[in-house]
Amino acid sequence: MDARRIAKLTKPGAVKRILVRGTNWIGDAVLTTPALMAIRKGFPKAKIALLVKPAIAELLHHYPAVDEIVLYRDPGPHAGLGGKLTLARLLRRGRYDLAILLQNAFEAAAITALAGIPNRYGYATDGRWFLLTHRVPLTSKIRRRHQAHYYLELLRPLGIPVEPEPPTLRTTPGEDAEAIEHLRAFGVDPKKFLIGLNPGSIYGTAKRWLPERFAEVADRVAAEHGGVVLIFGGRGEEELGAAIAGKMTAPTLVLSGRTTVRRLMALIKPCRLFITNDTGPMHIATAFGVPTVAIFGPTDPATTSPFGSRHELVRHPVDCSPCLLRECPIDHRCMQGISVEMVHAAAMRQTGTRSASENESVPVVYLDRDGTLNFDPGYLNEPEQLRLLPGVGPAVARLNRAGFKTVVLSNQSGVARGLITQDQLEAIHQRLRELLAEDGAWLDGIFICPHHPDEGCICRKPAPGLVHRALQELGVFPGNAIVIGDKATDVELARNVGALAVFVRSGSAPEEEQARMAARGLAPDYVARDLTEAVRWILETVNTQETLNVNR
Asked: Residue 396, Cα to own-chain centre: how many angstroms?
């Protein structure tokens, strides 16, 4: 892209009115909110209008990054060629200086060109390159990134900071109050533990977990918390919602097909837990910070998983997933393999509860980050710097499939030193999750110590504070654990918490670390070349029910 043309756009005062063409699906629209905020920060004095269809207009009504919403009514007056010309004439009256196309379609570029908007900026996709005045190449690397990053990366050539922030949504106090009254009108006490259930998917049946399993897991969670289950769904999913409610003993309210987008948002917001397929409401829940259990089958969590920290994915990795199909042509094995117990356990973790017997039976592997999972560049402070070491994704996936919890424990004194912000650290960890997800792997938790080494905190490894946090928040049992790391401090941590210790030689100075261990009288239980070899040793040698429970 011509740097001089970009410089003209970014010159202060050059752009006074911006039209942003938003996306058409609710989930995608939620994931564009960080990009909308970035556009606002990049053009603080410009008036920003958002061109979207009615459902997305509802979703983003009152959103602070947007000054005006222009409705795109198709079906309706903007359908067909004549409708597109009508819309173009409407946009022409807006006298926009710049159109930023978050939507990838050809028609988005065509309409803004017909509207005479002089600067049309977007990814060069869908054969529309000749309609764009500013074309951003869509590389294979960008295609593989999470959608929240995908929209942010479009803005990078404009010089706009693209530090990823979690998606956010807004409801008004009046809307919140009306939602509470709506619940009361149906006999639901809003002070109860509200459990949101979203068992459908407008996209297709392939994304749907089994209805009877939704009913069973919701019954169990409701019984444990004295809760009420709110069943959500779009138009056409009323029968599904009623069928699930009919299988349950817990108090339920079926809201499928009975809410506007705004009412849906205001009713999801007070939920204490949300259990869902990969859908738009899943992203609404996480945007409001609702603890979420997301069930993934045919879709790709690397690109469409919830973005943020208060969620957990439940998957059953199979060779044919992600297939991205609307209907499963075979036996729906990706969803059939997800049990009630798997989803219930994730719900327990999201609500901070776990039975004592489960605590003692679930083995956990504590993983160091830099030098164990990824190359160690010194102080890692940008997501793009993070590169997994060879074989790490498949190795973590093997632990996941074997029933181990996988938890990262990392000293990050760069926060205290001012070398990295908490937001940057969150972005790096989101990137770590995305890269692991490409191999069907996931992490059950990430815990960091942000303190300076001189502070004497109890969480900096080899002190046991991070392990204690994992015990409290994830319910894992400290004596049923293995620590894997590339530093002497990782081996010392293992000894401090009674865990097995595996030293990996994939870090930057393995000989020096082994010398430190020898000087301190530390001997790991196993020395591995890398994480692949460490996991192989764990799965071939360690009996998780006997060896791990030995107090080291």
From this structure: 18
3-state helix vs strand vs coil in the chain, percent to 5: 40, 15, 45
How is residue 483 written in tokens?
């620590």
Question: Tokens at residue 255, please?
Answer: 């809201």
- Any idea what the Cα angle at residue 430 is, between residues 284 and 474, rounded to 5°? 80
Predicted pLDDT of residue 301: 84
Take residue 210 and report the two structure tokens written for it.
């089994």
Backbone angles phi, psi at 505, to 5 degrees: -90, 25
pLDDT of 479 reads: 60
Structure confidence at residue 476 as a pLDDT band (50, 70, 90)? low
333 and 318 Cβ atoms separated by less than 8 Å: yes
CB count in 10 Å sphere of residue 385: 14
Could you give the dihedral angle defined by the CA atoms of residues 539, 541, 544 and 548, in that order, rounded to the nearest 10 degrees? -130
Maximum distance among all alpha carbons in the chain?
Answer: 81
Q: 12: alpha, beta or left, given left = phi > 0 and alpha = psi -120 to 50?
A: beta
Place 12 in a pLDDT band, splitting at 50, 70 and 90.
confident
Evaluate whether 350 touches 272 at the Cβ level (below 8 Å): no
Query: DSSP secondary-structure letter at 455?
Result: G
- Checking DSSP bridges between strand 311-315 and strand 68-71, what pairing results, if any? unpaired
Give, for 185, the enclosing helix (H) or strand (E).
helix 173-185
CA proximity to 207, closest of 332, 319, 291, 329: 332
Judge whether 176 counts as a catalytic residue: no
Specify the amino acid at residue 181: E
Domains defined for the chain, CATH in brackets = 3-158 (3.40.50.2000), 173-348 (3.40.50.2000), 356-541 (3.40.50.1000)
The more confident residue out of 292 and 439 is: 292
147: enclosing H helix or E strand: helix 147-155
**What is the pTM assigned to this prediction?**
0.70
- Per annotation, catalytic residue among 219, 278, 368, 444: 368
Phi, psi of 274 (to 5 degrees): -135, 120
Distances (CA, A) of 423 to 165, 204, 308: 7, 35, 11
How would you class 17 by CB atoms within 10 Å of its CB: exposed for 0-12, middle for 13-18, buried for 19 or more? middle
Q: Which of the following is catalytic: 28, 97, 370, 439?
A: 370
In this predicted structure, the answer to whether residue 112 has a pLDDT above a threshold of 70 is: yes
Q: What is the pLDDT of residue 432?
A: 93
- Whole-number percent of the chain with pLDDT over 70: 94
CA distances from 347 to 212, 333, 476, 519 (A): 17, 22, 15, 45
